[in-house]
Amino acid sequence: MGLSSFFKNLFGSAKESATDLANQAESTFEQAKEAAAPYIEKAEAFTEETIAKAKEASEPILESAAEYAHQAKDIVSEYVEKATDSISDVIDSVKEKASDISTDTKTIASETVVDASETAATVEDKIIDETKEKE
Fold first, then answer.
1. Three-state DSSP class for residue 1
2. Could you tell me the pLDDT band of residue 89, with boundaries at 50, 70 and 90?
3. How far apart are CA 120 and CA 127, in angstroms?
4. 102/23 Cα distance (integer angstroms)
5. Confidence of residue 44 (pLDDT cuts 50, 70, 90)
6. What angle do CA 100, 82, 101 make, to 5 degrees?
7. Gap between the Cα atoms of 105 and 129, Å rounded
8. CA–CA distance, 51 with 43 (Å, rounded to integer)
9. Residue 135 has what DSSP assignment?
10. How many CB atoms sit inside 10 A of residue 95's CB?
11. CB-neighbour burial class of residue 90 (10 A; exposed 0-12, middle 13-18, buried 19+)
């Protein structure tokens, strides 16, 4: 039985030591928490002040950015209108030139057909004349 009492004493004292350490750790944690509370409050106050200052400092910049954005929009809109007008002019010019070319092509084709018809008629007359002469 000496061995069992040895183990009981060994594990019993280890259990007590672990409980004491846990209690000490909890106490130390509470002390650290209490000591850190003022610093946490200061950090929160500093953060809030910094955010407020950043908002205040950024307001004029945001207003300027909005103003420049509106100016850029107006300028771009003006150029879009000019570009649209220019593109319309180019399209109209292309249509007009295509129409002129189409008309010229029709005229040339008609003249070619007439010339070919006249040439065919002349050749036909020569053939008829030559045929009559041979008879």
1. coil
2. confident
3. 10
4. 103
5. confident
6. 5
7. 36
8. 12
9. -
10. 10
11. exposed
pLDDT recorded at residue 33: 80
Q: Which residue has the tokens 């950090």?
A: 43
Q: What are phi and psi of 26, to 5 degrees?
A: -65, -40
What's the pLDDT score for residue 47?
86
Residue position matching structure tokens 């002469």: 133
Integer Cα distance of 59 and 71 in angstroms: 18
DSSP, residue by residue, 58-119? HHHHHHHHHHHHHHHHHHHHHHHHHHHHHHHHHHHHHHHHHHHHHHHHHHHHHHHHHHHHHH
Averaged pLDDT for residues 103-129: 68
The vertex-75 CA angle with 73 and 77, nearest 5°, equals 65
* Both tokens assigned to 11: 């594990």
Tokens of 89: 């002019």
